[in-house]
Each structure stands twice: as C-alpha cells, then as structure tokens.
Amino acid sequence: MTSEREPLRERAFHLFARAIVRSDPGRLEAWVELxxxxxxxxxxxxxxxxxxxxxxxxxxSLKVTPSTLTRIVDRLVRQGLVxxxxxxxxxRLVRHYLSASGASTVEELERSGRARMNEVMDRLSAPxxxxxxxxxxxxxxxxxxxxxDELSRVEA
Length: 156
Hints:
The chain is mainly α. The chain has two domains: 2-123, Arc Repressor Mutant, subunit A, CATH 1.10.10.10; 125-156. Helices cover 75% and strands 8% of the residues. The protein is built from seven helices and three strands; from the N terminus they run αααβααββαα. A three-stranded antiparallel beta sheet has the order 1-3-2. α2 runs antiparallel to α6 (100-121). The mean pLDDT is 88.
C-alpha cells in the first residue's frame, strides 16, 4: 500500500514546494529591501502573535539557542523594529515587543502577500477554490494529528 502511495506523495511534495516558492516572490524582494533574514522575519511575526514574549520562549519557539536569539533581536532592535522592556513583576525577565515600525513592517508584508494571493486565487473557479480549501483542511487536520502524536510520545 505504501509503495502505491509513494508517487502521489512525491507529487504532493513537489507541488506543495512549488506553490510555496511561487506564492509570493514580491515578499522575498521586500525582505531583501529591508535587509531582513528569514529568522528575523520569523521573530517579527512571532512577536505580532505573542507580543511581550520572553527571549526563552522565543528561542524555544524558533528552535534556536538563547545566544543566537539575542544576536537576532539585537539587530532588530538596532533597526528599530523591536524593543525590549524589563518585566514589572520580575526585573530579571526581559520582554520583547514590536515597535510601531516593526508592526507596520509586518502589516505591510502581510498586506502585500495577501493581495498577491488574492489575485492568484481569483484565477480559480469556485469549485477549484472549494477543492483547495478542502485539501488544506485535510492537510492541517493531518498535521494537528501528527503533532498530537509527537507530543504524546514526548510526554510518555
């Protein structure tokens, strides 16, 4: 059974990778113009979702060492995209926030990416768009199940 699925799986990997690469070339240009690395962008988007995150939480979420995260955030602070604040309840804890410029940068990257993807999706018929939504729902459900299995193995 697995051998029958292998060509489909390979085709799915290939198509998914192509879709990701082609989904937003304009955003890549914007990143280059801003002088941001992929990890710096991940920090910005993480802070948008978890404003006030500690360095430890961010390092864990991004799967980098605390010293690596410090260097990444230092650059973002120098660029005026992130600010650090000492936690009022625990002076040893430093929280990280998007600056107004950082929030604006993330919003603009997201807006331009979404505008391009809207143009791409406008090329799909309603039935094609419905199939895409169903396929993405199936994929995210499978991902959630896999993550739950991995978590239960770690906790066991």
